[in-house]
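Record minuted for everyone:
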Amino acid sequence: MLVYCDSVILMYFFDHTGPLNVSATDRLAALAAAKDGIAVSDLVRLEYRVKPLKNCDNLKLTLFDAFCGRPDVEVVPITTAVFDRATVIRAANNFKLADSLHLAAAVEAGCDRFLTNDKRLLSFTGIPVEVLM
């Protein structure tokens, strides 16, 4: 199974403490244990890297870049087809631009699931959406 992780999942994993960090850590560990793949896009990379860059936090950047370079992590491209699909998704669902791009990237990459914490995305039917609790 290939699971696309919304940016916030990795933010919880790398940056937060408390229940959301535990949930993200447990879910990513379960994916690894099942030998499932993790998909991210360069949009995930962009959204995650902003805060560490602002804070000159080279350690977090290094850890995140290492995560994205793992063999079980696939960085999926944001192509013209992704933008075209995102346009349709946004028009049909009134989702935000970034959410539409994330969903489109996941669908175009053939992902089996989309992992997020955004309950609004549960209404999307193009891919199973899993909301992290």
